[in-house]
Amino acid sequence: MMGEEIDNDATSLTNYLCQAYLPRLMLDETLPPEENFATAWDRMEELNMDSTRLIRQVSEIPLLALQNAVRLYFMGFQNRLHVDWANTRLKLPSPGMTILTNAAISRLGIESESDFLAALEHFPLDTAAEALRTVEGRPFDEDELKFSRLKASSARSTKKLWSIYTFGPHVLPTGVWRPGVVILALPPWQLGIGDLHEFASRRVFTHGELDREPAGTTAWSNATKLWAMLYDTSRVSGYRWFVITTYNSWVFGTWSLDWSAAEVTRPIPFDRTRGMSIVELLTFWIECARDKTRFWHVATNAPPDDMEG
């Protein structure tokens, strides 16, 4: 395991990011309780397809290898990236450097999904975006270096199905590859840590398994629905780098070029700082997705399936 050297310069962006942590959310007692497995979601007819979702294979991203890649990436900036602590856009607390203001603490009280999304944007997403602008020497009003919140809606109504964030160009792709990342954000009362572990531990999908939800008692689990949601969101956006988050837990992953395979991490807790912090990993993941660094690559295409030949 690589040594965890920390730059002692109090104005160093790399020093800030490696110690920055996500403060704990305070969920209102009126919200559904957090459980290992959240209450089963309603059926979503929008997830039923007449065509085939191509995913067949899922592999695990080893966290130690990923951590080493993150460390190597940020070592390249050691002593070269400095921040002005009058910059209020770096919003995560970092020991000995920044603390939470009373106004920030008030954002941690969550009474609704809107509050959840606002806290997600304010703390990790805004901080990662500012870190990227600092790394690339770009101004705050650079539209390309901001997260955009979107919603997946039903074709049958205006009902929102799930919330999406993207970071990348908004123009339509002109080729196979589109630089950028998509984030699916679900509140922790809608997606439990058990659901996320089930999602991340999936290894094989048989031909057509993810196309239509079976009727009756064999309905898809939340984790299986999440795979269908992620596949559709990624295909529509064209982004092969993705993140699943409940704020409390994070899963990072990529799709192969032909969409037949994915690779994912195990769920990572929100307050992790040892080895790599969530905001470090998020910053690194976006830069990889935007082809700004080659320390990580997308998943490898799955071997040919018998159904194809």
Q: What distinguishing features does this structure have?
A:
309 residues; eight-stranded mixed beta sheet; two-stranded parallel sheet; disordered N terminus
Structure, explained:
The protein has helices spanning 13-19, 63-75, 102-106, 113-136, 193-201, 222-237, 278-289; strands at 26-27, 57-60, 109-110, 148-153, 160-167, 178-185, 239-245, 249-255, 261-264, 268-269. The strands form 2 sheets. Strands 2, 4, 5, 6, 7, 8, 9 and 10 form an 8-stranded mixed beta sheet that branches. A two-stranded parallel sheet has the order 1-3. By secondary structure, the protein is of the alpha/beta class. The radius of gyration is 19 Å and the shape is globular. The protein is built from 7 helices and 10 strands. 28% of the residues lie in helices and 16% in strands.
Number of separate helices:
7
Beta-strand percentage range: 15-25%
Sheet/helix structural class: alpha/beta
Q: Portion of residues in helices?
A: 25-40%
Biggest sheet architecture: 8 strands, mixed
In short, what is this structure?
The protein has 309 residues and is an alpha/beta fold. Helices cover 28% and strands 16% of the residues.
List the helices and strands and how they pair.
Blueprint: H1 13-19, E1 26-27, E2 57-60, H2 63-75, H3 102-106, E3 109-110, H4 113-136, E4 148-153, E5 160-167, E6 178-185, H5 193-201, H6 222-237, E7 239-245, E8 249-255, E9 261-264, E10 268-269, H7 278-289
Parallel strand pairs: 1-3, 2-9, 6-7
Antiparallel strand pairs: 4-5, 5-6, 7-8, 8-9, 8-10
